[in-house]
Amino acid sequence: MDEIREKACAKLNISLDVLGKRPDGYHDMVMIMQTVSLTDEVSIERTDGQGIRASTNLEYIPGDERNLAVRAAGVFFRESGIAEEGLRISIRKKIPVGAGLAGGSADAGAVLRALNRLYGMPLDREGLVRAAEQVGSDVAFCTLGGTMLASGRGEILTRLPSMPECWYGIIMPHFSISTPELFRKLDGKKIRCHPDTQGLVQAVENGDLSGVCRRMYNVFEDVDDRRMRTVAEIKGRLMDCGAMGALMTGTGSAVFAVFESQKTAETAVSEMKGDHRLAAVCGNVGPLA
Ligand code: C5P
Fold first, then answer.
1. Which residues pair with 43 in a beta bridge?
2. Are 105 and 174 in a shared domain?
3. CB of 26 shorter than 6 A to ligand 1
4. FRET pair for 255, CA 20 to 30 Å: which of 16, 82, 160, 244?
5. Who's near 228: CB < 8 A, 6+ residues apart?
């Protein structure tokens, strides 16, 4: 087969904790992450050796090595020992950029899974993770998918049982947030509150959705940044619409809310649609690899 397709799933942070800055400049984190059915569509074609290039429906996204999908393909060939071939990667983006939804990492994860399939599964799960962590901190999670407890830079993963059945309403305001910028702001302050990660893991293991929602927490919401006011407003509106809990994902700017029913999620999202860059309903997606 010369063309292969793969869905790239967005990630949500059910919790996000930062433990401290490391000597290598990264931060040690503890997070519970979940893949959801808001997806980009990735397709890959072999070409007659013109290198690895990507194109998307958004013209401002680069098609060269700056694109994580291109980097993932290069790393795949290196890790698998297969001689590099020319590839054309086409990505239909629905996951917004700069939203904390790991869109670029999701595309990279999809490329790793797709190429592994295309070339007869030369990498096992460990090989995929080894390749993924060279591309970016969230890529290992995005490659494997499902519900995970992540630590280290985000690449040390422990699989959890699936999130209890629920629906998410995702709202992104009309601005994006740069991840390195928010990390820098976090470095300048003392983190006073941390999520109860152990309690959250227990709640996920017990299938206790309200226990999960009560404990959802993201330390980046406490950063001194005026954009967090908008985040708090969106969370408030989602709660007024009947959400069980709401949280910013990653370094934002997207906010998600948890709903018990699809209908309530759809009503909430349609009420908020006009005022925001993205308003979407999605559900949980289980393990991808
Ligand atoms: O690993 P990745 O390239 O996706 O990370 C993007 C940026 O996010 C890093 O350059 C760094 O500023 C920040 N980061 C961090 N600690 C992490 C993950 C990301 O400081 N664990």
1. 5, 90
2. no
3. yes
4. 160
5. 221, 222, 248
Secondary structure of 130-188 as H, E, C letters = HHHHHHCCCHHHHHHECEEEEEECCCEEEECCCCCCCEEEEEECCCCCCHHHHHHHHHC
Question: Domain count of the chain?
Answer: 2
Rounded CA-CA distance 65/75 in Å is 11
Query: How deeply is 50 buried, as exposed, middle or buried, from its count of CB atoms within 10 A (0-12, 13-18, 19+)?
Result: exposed
| Contact present, 12 and 34 (Cβ < 8 Å) | yes
Tell me which residue has its CA closest to atom 8 in ligand 1.
Answer: 180
Q: Are residues 182 and 153 in the same domain?
A: no
Element (H, E) at 258: strand 255-259
Q: Distance between CA atoms of 136 and 102, rounded to whole angstroms? A: 10
Q: Does ligand 1 lie within 6 Å of residue 119's CB atom?
A: no
- Residue at a domain's end among 159, 178, 202: 159
Do 144 and 38 belong to one domain?
Answer: yes
Instruction: State in Å: Cα 153 to ligand 1 middle.
Output: 7
Sign of CA dihedral 140, 141, 142, 144: positive
Q: Quote the pTM value.
A: 0.97
CA 35 to chain CA centroid, nearest Å: 7
Query: Residue 73 half-sphere exposure, CB side, CA atoms within 13 Å?
Result: 28
Chain segment 176-199, per-residue pLDDT in tens? 999 999 999 999 889 999 999 999
**Which CATH number do you get for residue 114?**
3.30.230.10
Sign of CA dihedral 276, 277, 280, 284: negative
